[in-house]
Amino acid sequence: MSALLISGGRILDPRSGRDGIADVLIQDGSVVDIGTSLQEGDAEVLDARGLVVAPGLVDLHTHVREPGREDEETIASVSAAAAAGGYTAICAMPNTDPVADTASVVEKVWALGRETGLVEVAPAGALSRGQAGQQMADLGEMAQSVARVRLFTDDGHGVQDALFARRAMEYLGGLGGVYAEHCEDASLAAGGQMHEGPRSIRLGLRGIPAAAEELMAARDIALARLTGCRLHLLHLSTRGSVELVRKAKAEGLPVTAEATPHHFTLTDEALEGYDPNMKVNPPLRAESDRAAIIAGLADGTIDAIATDHAPHALEEKDREFTYAPPGMVGLETALALAVSELVVPGHMSLLDVIDRLSAAPARILGLQGQGQITVGSPANLVVFDLLEQWQVDASLFYSRSRNTAFAGRTLTGRVAHTIFRGRPTVRDGAVAGVLV
Amino acid sequence: MIKHLLSMDQLSAEDITQILDTADSLRQVTDRPIKKLPTLRGRTVCNLFYEPSTRTRISFELAAKRLSADVINFSADSKSSVSKGESFKDTAWTLEAMGVDAIVVRHSSSGAPHQLSQWVRASVINAGDGAHEHPTQALLDLFSVREHFKDFEDLKVAIVGDILHSRVARSNVKGLLTMGAQVTLIGPPTLLPPQGDAWGASTSYDLDAVIGDMDICYLLRVQQERQSEQLFPSLREYASRWGLDRRRLAKMKPDAIVMHPGPMNRGVEIGADVSESPRAIILNQVANGLAVRMSLLYLMLGGRGEEMVDE
User: Fold this and answer.
1) Selection from A215-229, B25-39, B264-278 with the highest mean pLDDT
2) For residue B193, what is the nearest residue in chain A, using CA coordinates?
3) Does B106 have pLDDT greater than 80?
4) Which of the residues A139, B134, B191, B291 could staple to B128 if both were Cys, CB 3.0 to 4.6 A apart?
């Protein structure tokens, strides 16, 4: 019998609305009591006075790179990065090599996650074989595998063919799956390097218009209306997309959405120096888009904050802007960016931010033991200092990759401990048993 | 003087005037029997060209040699260097290790000179980057304009053609506006910036409506591939609506001039007879390129304190 007592922290649980000082007693991996002055003779005590205790964070959007690009990230390294960032679950995107389009690949990813044991790794499956957008992947077999895939996506690019999208939604509807879209019309976005606007024209970089995203978001919402399938829109970046989701929700359609920390923090202004670390897809947009993303997160139009953690090797990023692949890592800075950019300026309450980072994504993924602090539930928790300021140093990341947009930036809010299934995976900011 | 020349944004009207004045004096050198100055003796200039370019590279090479600098030419196809061979950064560091003083860079990727300037101590001169800028082209064009009109004030300049994909247009708009000229961008809507006024220039789709007011008609090369990208119906239609033919030339003011950065598509953006008319100063532009590039190298490398060691 192992017992852990987290004492004196401010418990924040979005699902129940709890916000107050209390102790949390954990035994055999589960929360067994929440209250004041809890005692347990042989329990290890984690002093959480002055700290926030929240449900472990859940990332809907992690590129794990294994199998295929283990030089950039592995399930083990991404699990450590996630734990360091306060996460207890991640959804592994299927654009690996080979693509996660069969039960055997998703089961492998799931098993590697389990073996690493730092976070719950929930694999997403591809919608189409090889993510080529033509032939359905083994949707049912992945859903019924031990990995119990629930979210399916061709993330990396959008499904271009409307009929394929319709069929996939209809088929997934019968499996209780979620159709997740990277909204991007390939013809409008072709060759695009950054957000299309006055700045892209001035910098001489081909633009990706907001319409490239909005067109597909509108199409998929229409198809969700047609098929009744659960639709999740990945990494929304434009004001128009937020408005489309707002209307779809008002209509009662089964639509959810996510946004990334970089889209609520940065704008295309970051592209001025042609730093390939600022290149991401969807691109950093205009200030009005950033404001709309924040408003969407605040009013719940956008359900979740997701990282789109996309590790890239140094040699791939450290080259001409046009040739560098899009994407940035995000697991180890997401919580601090949410605190710094959403809570500190007063755009959102801390409870709502925690909801978007934990309870909401756990609900979308259907992860039962995540996103809540409840007696009887698995103890998946993050303990963090809301006020601590720290400077981002990419050389200290647990991720194998360093392609962050935030190197050198001072952020507020720092993870102290992460508890996964009752066991501390992170103590005082260091991942247990893992060297940087 | 500036350390790197990456964009016309960096240059004030005073800077530009200094560059043009210096070019004026240096041009006299090219009229001498011995066309060489010792100013950059012992300095090394590298032409790093990732895109095929004959005229710009030769112009820089000659400019550096006329100032007695040692010149290295490094040409690589950017497409093949993506898939194999040395990375841009490793090449930059190699040149740095060899003690190069200036790198003149041409690259198909916008911003490549910016990135290069962060990796090396040498001066970086942008000789054209993607669809971003081509500042030395703008400077030689300004030199040519000043040579003809003496003054930029109230000068009306039409830049006609594929503005959207043109680094020449970007640099020229900035330079001309800085010097006090008025600029109108003309072309089909698909080739103009949607926010044309973002650069401080006005825009028009109708060349015939404005050509009579212009002092300068600056024509841009129409790339053949724009037709296949569905940016306009055909080269024939382009020529009929935006090409400068004899009929349109006749509508221009008597002292108005025609400019083109080359290479020309005769019969598309410019009529063959127009390009050969005395109103076209296209060959002057080429000749002035040499003096302006000498001026830049002289100002950027010549006055950097570390004096030349005598042999």
Assistant:
1) A215-229
2) A201
3) yes
4) B134
Which ipTM was obtained for this model? 0.91
Per-residue pLDDT of B45-67, as tens digits, reads 999 999 988 889 999 999 999 99
Instruction: Give the pLDDT of residue B198.
Output: 63
**Average pLDDT of the segment spanning B277-296:** 94
Backbone angles phi, psi at B260, to 5 degrees: -160, 135
Q: Which residue has the tokens 């283990």?
A: A70
Residues in chain A closer than 8 A to B113 (CB atoms): none
Question: At CB < 8 Å, which residues of chain A contact B?
Answer: 193, 197-198, 201-206, 273-274, 315, 318-323
Q: Is the pLDDT of residue B304 over 90?
A: no
- DSSP per residue, A43-85: -EEEE-TTSEEEEPEEEEEE---TTT-TTT--HHHHHHHHHHT
Is B224 within 8 Å of chain A by CB?
A: no
Alpha helices in A162-209 (DSSP H): 162-173, 186-189, 198-203
Averaging pLDDT over each range in A393-402, A426-435, B272-281, which range is the top one? A393-402
| CB–CB contact B110 A203 (8 Å) | yes
The whole-angstrom separation of Cα A357 and Cα A377 is 18
Q: Which residues contact A87 (CB under 8 A, 6 or more apart)?
A: A56, A57, A58, A59, A119, A331, A382, A418
Q: How far apart are CA A87 and CA A78, in angstroms?
A: 11
Q: Which amino acid is at B206?
A: D
Q: Is B198 on the interface with A (CB under 8 A)?
A: yes
Q: Does A299 participate in catalysis according to the annotation?
A: no
Nearest to A296, CA basis, from A338, A258, A337: A258
Q: How many CB atoms lie within 10 A of CB A282?
A: 26
Residue B78 has pLDDT above 80, yes or no: no
Which run of H or of E encompasses B175? Answer: helix B167-178
